[in-house]
Amino acid sequence: MTNGEFRREYAYHLVDEVKKGRMTRRQMLVRASVFGLSVTAAGQLLAACGGSDEEPAGEASGLPEPVMGGTIKLIGPAPITDPDPVTIYDQGGIVLVYQFLEYLIDLDNNNGLKPKLAESWTPSETGDVWTFNLRQGVTFNDGSPFEAEDVVTSIERVLDPANGSGALSQLSGVLSPGGVKAVDQYTVEFTLDKPYVDFPYMVSSGNYNTAILNRKYKGDIVDNPVGTGPFLLKEYKSKQKAVFVKNPTYWGKDAQGRQLPYLDGMEYTMVEDNSAQNLQLQSGAVDVQPQTIFQGAQALFGDPNLRVDIYPSSGIREVAFNMNVDPWKDNKPLRQAVAYCLDREAINKALYDGRSLLGYDTFWEPTVFPGSPPSTARAQDYDMAKQLLSDAGYPDGIDITLTHAKYLENPQYAQLIQEQCKPAGINVKLEQLSYEAYYAGDDADYYGTTPWLNAPMTITEWGSRPAPGIFAAAMLLPDAVWSSSHWNNPEWVSLFDQYQSTADEASRSDVAAKLSSIQQDDTPILIAFYITQLRTQKKNVFGIQGPGSFYCDLSQAFMTA
Amino acid sequence: VLRLIGRRLLLMIPTLILASLLIFALAEVLPGDVGRSILGPYATQEQVDLLNQKLGADAPLYERYLTWAGNFVTGDWGDSLLLEVPVMPTVMEALANSLLLAGFALVLIVPTSIVVGVFAGLRRDTALDRTITVSTLSMTVIPEFVSGVVLLYVFAVWLKWLPVSAMPPEGSSFIDRLYYLILPAIPLMFLELGYIARMARVGTVQVMGMPYIRTAVLKGVPQRRVIFGHMLRNAMVPTVTVIGSQVGWLIGGLVVIEWLFVYPGIGQLMVQAAQTHDIPLLEASVLMVAVIYMISNLIADIVVALLSPRIRMGG
């Protein structure tokens, strides 16, 4: 079977799943996008399913007519280092890179995939070779054409450990150096280490270090900002500001065929302090804050000149039980006891004004990742918690220590856990470290010493991931470098292998249900909520796109008078 | 006076060496390292080790110190490890910004606090004295992040009279720059006013009780001449010393104000450098602030010596 035939076969399979009621229409669109089916093709699929087209979430409807020109002012934290796409990992870096560089694939508001520099992609029948067809006629702003060779060098660059890219930790075990090949000028082939049906996410903007750079890139992004994106980096002043102007030769057009971007330029002011950012917004000095933090944002919600948009995101605060050490080792009832102490709704209310989505200690959460198998809610239940505590061998209560960084809302979350555990007889001692200390470790043995991977119980912040499997692979597999729980459940691991290589949606969904229920039952980590994302802008600003955390696509943004 | 200056300048050298050593040692014991700061939590330890090796951050401490110190004294301040820009212009630019803010604040603070303090001292134990003392002291205890936010909210967000940021757009005139500095200077004035005014008041009260002032008053010298001719010169000695000791803080210690008003000064630069283990940048910024501290104290001592012959003679 050729790749094209396989894709058609898969499309029929998706339609079948929807017709049989085993899949929602939204989930079908997301899965269709992962397998590289175009929007038109997906529309035809929907028609084949019967019924009308479903309106995706977002602000798409009711937008005013776009206005051309103007320079939009953004405010946010400075990138920790230069915005080198190979090594960025923070909000500042991600927002800036997104303006002048592009990815093979972009994420949409449902965490589905949409073509960007790649026009289409197909897996081989076995799921371990993926072929990407690139967009033609795209040029970098230095005039050189965008071709397969640029993709090969960009991806191989992040695969080389010497380049220090965080993308490597996501790609390890999936794609090895030498696995990317230019088939011809506009076709790239990825040969994976194993079948992996979610692979397209790995080379999407969801894996932000995989931005496509010119093949001649030397690591000098600020002096030589060459990209294919809608804007050009005109000026960069470390820790102060970045100025962008419109890329006059940008390939993108809107639905009416108008040249993108609409704006003439963008200025990004770097301000670390959150309240200082909010004051700048309220004074009218800036137009957009790409990421608004709940704490301290009340004044913004009530400001008549500002609009706060809420976007779904899957960021979490992972509460991990370290199963290498006591008391968590081989003690499932104890871990479950803590889980039953949590009043998740009260936590959501206290930390996020009730605006986040509730989680029940599994990644397969249908409200966050549409189409996931239903999860079982875990309400606060002290009788149950006390019983479990007794089963765990601690009928008279237990003292435990929770280690966390003084960072974001983690200290407040830790206090809530402490309060809610007390009535069950679980006394939580809080160990608060500075952000630096929490992630620090001995040079000789970082993984064996750093608090976030070694303390008995920890809170670690994780940014949005587009699919449950990507979260799980990063922190729940026994060989995952970032596993704070050190969970090793052979049954789950073998099911997960199956999940990653299964293209058939019905069997994939069955496997997901098992994975989810084992994860929840064994409770290696607590996931009490999935954080929604806020973006604040003036009321005359429209058309900003960007799901998940940090992304801020301004190519279709505009400001009315 | 010249001997005093010479000796004090010589003393600065061992002080600076000691300070630079301390910074290295402290940066060493602080958790984290520069490679991890650059690559972030998602990079693997192998990658971080490779980078540290490339940056020379894995060499023994004394070796790194000697290399750095050798280069520093010859004027080669190196590059910031994190920002990949030369250290000297970065530090100098931030220092110039801080000097301008501190200078502007001092121009507001010094005359106001002296006038207020002397006035209170002359009206000792009256309702006016007490009002001045209580109100200036209350201002002093308001932390700058509180007064700063309130001022910003009232004057920048609500009334929109003054800009919310302390940095004007590029190409603005000097006057414009000062206009942008009004709002950040006020919290500093709040902090310093009570302190310096109290010193001026104490000096005034003390000197006004001296026999020679009483003699002058009894001789029928007009009050204005008593104050400007005899009293002020002597009453200012403790005030000048205090001002001298505050200048260093006004330049290097304004982290909160710089943060709040988005002002690229040296205080912020130092904090960032310390957090990220960017030693070349940290060393240069701290040493520059130390130099400013010492120079401002020296100037204060010289002024005191000129004001008071007794101290001058005693050396």
Short note summarizing the structure:
The complex is a heterodimer of chains A (561) and B (315). Chain A has 561 residues and is of the alpha+beta class.
Q: What percentage of the residues of chain A does DSSP assign to strands (E)? A: 15-25%
The portion of residues assigned to helices of chain B is over 70%
Mean of pLDDT of chain B: 86
Shape of chain A: globular
Total strand count of chain A, please? 20
Oligomer: heterodimer
What about the largest sheet of chain B?
none
The biggest chain-chain interface is: A-B, 43 and 48 residues
Structural class of chain A: alpha+beta
Taking Cα atoms only, what radius of gyration of chain B do you get, to the nearest Å? 24 Å
Number of E-state strands of chain B: 0
Stretches of chain A where pLDDT falls below 50 for ≥5 residues? 51-60
Number of helical runs of chain A? 19
Radius of gyration of chain A from the CA trace?
24 Å
Unreliable parts of chain B: none
Helix/strand structural class of chain B: mainly alpha
Q: SSE order of chain B, as H and E?
A: HHHHHHHHHHHHHHH
Categorize the overall geometry of chain B.
globular
Beginning-to-end CA distance, first to last residue of chain A: 56 Å
Largest sheet properties of chain A: 6 strands, antiparallel
Number of helices of chain B: 15
How would you explain this protein's 3D organization?
The complex is a heterodimer of chains A (561) and B (315). In chain A, 31% of the residues lie in helices and 20% in strands. With 561 residues, chain A is of the alpha+beta class. In chain A, the strands form six sheets. In chain A, strands 11, 12, 13, 16, 17 and 18 form a six-stranded antiparallel beta sheet that branches. In chain A, strand 2 and strand 3 (113-115) form a beta hairpin. In chain A, helix 1 (3-19) packs parallel to helix 3 (39-49). Residues 51-60 of chain A have low confidence and may be disordered. Chain B has 315 residues and is mostly helical. Helices cover 79% and strands 0% of the residues of chain B. Chain B is built from 15 helices and no strands. In chain B, helix 5 crosses helix 8 and helix 8 crosses helix 10 (223-235). The mean pLDDT of chain B is 86. Chains A and B meet through helix 8 and helix 14 of A and helix 2, helix 3, helix 7 and helix 13 of B.
